[in-house]
Amino acid sequence: MSKKIYCRCEDITEEDILKAIDEGFDDIESLKRYSGFSTGPCEGKNCIMHVIRLLSQKKGLKPEDLRLTVLRPPVDPVLIDVLAGEE
Amino acid sequence: MESAIVIGGGITGFSIAYNLAKRGVKTTLLEKKYPSSGSTGRCSGGIRNQWSREHEIKLARESIKVLEKLSAELNFNILFRQGGHIILAEDEKSMNNLVKDTETQRDVNVRTEILNQDQIKRILPFVDITKIVGGTLNRKEGVCHPFSLLYGYQQSFKKLGGKVLKFTKAEKLDIRNSKVEGVKTNKNTFEADFVVVAAGAYSKELLKTIGINIQSKVLKTEILATEPLKFFIKPMVLCKPSMLFFNQTIRGEVIGGASEPSNEGYNLDSSLEFLRTFSKKLRNIAPPLRRVKVLRSWAGLQEFSPDESPIYGKTEIQNLYIACADSGKAFTFAPKIGEYFAELITEGQTSWDMTPFSLKRFEKKINQNH
């Protein structure tokens, strides 16, 4: 069977997401924490919409009925050295 | 069959709920958001035995013993890795305190090693040893993945017949004749023989409605994760007095914080100041880590009791129990405290003295002052 990759950073497939939903992790934040999608370097920018589409279908809702996960700063990865500033 | 309601879907609530279900109590857990949404899902996962007071050292020691066998018991990998905790002293005063603590720990059979600069350098080659006086290491300590531990408990709790109701907020405790009879939520009213309030920093607002005042401070604490790196940090590292800490997860991310007490309150916003403070402290102690990128940061709440030790046990209301004001220690203590609560609730007493953690200890102090 072919695999559909949902989260490229963490290698999470459609099957993984479906399994997690079936196990009861059926709100977006729990689903993120259990499956690990959206926790790689892209912080969900590539995967969140796919997951929202799938979860809304499974729950019989419209995608816009689901919220995004809480966004965690920084928007893009930043070096410790840059954050620390001049020595 | 006796029934219980546990309020709070964090690690303490789940450990208590699981242990109650294991003893045959029909248990329902209420969580106002989703399990792990509070401080458990925001913590570093550190399991520490290096405390200063005997009753805390003993409880942590017993908790570690539970964790060592828990993956097998729950049939769920809780991702507990015993890489040790190393506490680095940045000045002589901190070093003296650490050495004193190792003596208290030794008295209750907890072996913590005292390290000199050379020994530290061998374990942590990237640390600038000129900034460090010495340190201590306990090899039994480690890190447990907060979500895995919680989900492990949740899965077994459900298999034992336990019910988890998410997005169900406990709004009022039903008290009649100084006895708790149930809980009113935003959805339904539930009756139960026993009620446990284990809602972390949100416990005190609920308890206030029935006249139980918890004297505690709630502080926001921030934490961050870096990009995943090849494994290179075995122990969790804590620096005193700067309170910088960091460890590397099994996924390779470095998780760290700088525990500067911030503004009191329930605000959970991330701040740029934290990222800057943490980065400065980290670069100072571990210069090579300057080349690492920060992926994300978040905040959690820490609730400190007046003596910075948790409150566990009975209340003046019959059949109402509380576990709150953990003072940053709930994650370490939860595995054992769940067993003690189940014992206390089903048998009326415990084989272990819980009085040092009782709510009453603060009442006594007030009386003495008068």
Keywords:
heterodimer, A: 87 residues, mainly alpha, Arc Repressor Mutant, subunit A, two-stranded antiparallel sheet, 8% strand, elongated, B: 370 residues, alpha+beta, FAD/NAD(P)-binding domain, D-Amino Acid Oxidase, Chain A, domain 2, 2 domains, six-stranded mixed beta sheet, 9 helices, 20 strands, 26% strand, globular
Order of helices and strands of chain A: EEHHHEH
Helical amount of chain A: 25-40%
Mean pLDDT of chain B: 95
Number of helices of chain A: 4
CATH class membership of the largest domain in chain B: Alpha Beta
Number of strands of chain B: 20
Poorly predicted runs of chain B are none
The proportion of strand residues of chain A reads 5-15%
Fraction of residues in β-strands of chain B: 25-35%
- Secondary-structure element string of chain B: EHEEHEEHEHEEHEEEEEHEEEEHEEEHH
- Which assembly state applies to the chains in this document? heterodimer
Instruction: Kindly report the greatest chain-chain contact and the residue count on each side.
Output: A-B, 23 and 32 residues
Structural class from helices and strands of chain A? mainly alpha
Largest beta-sheet characterization of chain B? 8 strands, mixed
Description:
The complex is a heterodimer of chains A (87) and B (370). By secondary structure, chain A is mainly α. Chain A has a single domain, classed as Orthogonal Bundle (Arc Repressor Mutant, subunit A), CATH 1.10.10. Chain A is built from 4 helices and 3 strands, in the order ββαααβα. Chain A has a two-stranded antiparallel ribbon with strand order 1-2. In chain A, helix 1 packs across helix 3 (48-59). The longest helix of chain A has 12 residues, at 48-59. Chain B is an alpha+beta fold and 370 residues long. Chain B has 9 helices and 20 strands. Chain B has helices spanning 11-22, 54-74, 92-107, 117-123, 146-159, 203-208, 272-285, 330-347, 360-369, and strands at residues 3-7, 26-30, 46-47, 80-81, 85-89, 113-115, 134-138, 142-144, 163-165, 170-176, 179-185, 189-191, 194-197, 217-226, 236-240, 245-248, 254-257, 293-304, 311-314, 320-324. In chain B, the strands form 4 sheets. Chain B has an 8-stranded mixed sheet, sandwiched between helices. In chain B, strands 9-2-1-13-20-19 form a 6-stranded mixed sheet. A 3-stranded antiparallel sheet of chain B has the order 3-8-4. In chain B, a hairpin with a 4-residue loop joins strand 15 and strand 16. In chain B, helix 1 (11-22) runs parallel beside helix 5, helix 1 (11-22) runs parallel beside helix 8 (330-347) and helix 2 (54-74) crosses helix 8 (330-347). The longest helix of chain B is centred in the N-terminal third of the chain and has 21 residues, at 54-74. Chain B starts with a strand and ends with a helix. The mean pLDDT of chain B is 95. Chains A and B meet through helix 2, strand 3 and helix 4 of A and helix 5, helix 7 and strand 18 of B. Strand 3 of chain A pairs antiparallel with strand 18 of chain B, so a sheet runs across the interface.
